[in-house]
Amino acid sequence: MAERGARRLNVTVDAERAAKLARLAERTHVQEGTLARSLLSQALDDTDADPRNVVALLDGIPGAFRTAQQGLRQARTGRTIALDDL
Asked: Which of 1, 23, 26, 43 has its CA 20 to 30 A from that of 69?
């Protein structure tokens, strides 16, 4: 059962990190999703909420700005899927 106020978030990682997550999950005998959720929660708890640090973090994601711009173009041209259709 989901925690009160919990939200679902889908995260895509590259093949190298996906393989690393799979190896860690196998060694720790937990599901990959459970381990990923725990790791992300810990990272968020440890993250400084100062906007300058958040910007630096986002700037360090390869292709993030390009992908965000692509998403905006797709939204403007109506190439989206309504949340109710997911």
From this structure: 43
pTM of this prediction?
A: 0.54
Dihedral (CA of 72, 74, 76, 79) sign: negative
Q: Are both 62 and 76 inside the same structural domain?
A: yes
Query: How many residues are listed for the chain in this entry?
Result: 86
Overall number of domains in the chain? 2
- Count of H helices and E strands in the chain? 4, 0
Backbone dihedral region of 77: left (phi > 0), alpha (psi from -120 to 50 degrees) or beta? Answer: alpha
Cα–Cα distances in Å, from 40 out to 9, 12, 32, 53, 72? 11, 12, 12, 17, 26
What span, in angstroms and rounded, lies between the C-alpha atoms of 6 and 9? Answer: 10
Give CA–CA dist 60/51, Å, rounded: 14
Residues 42 and 65 in one domain: no
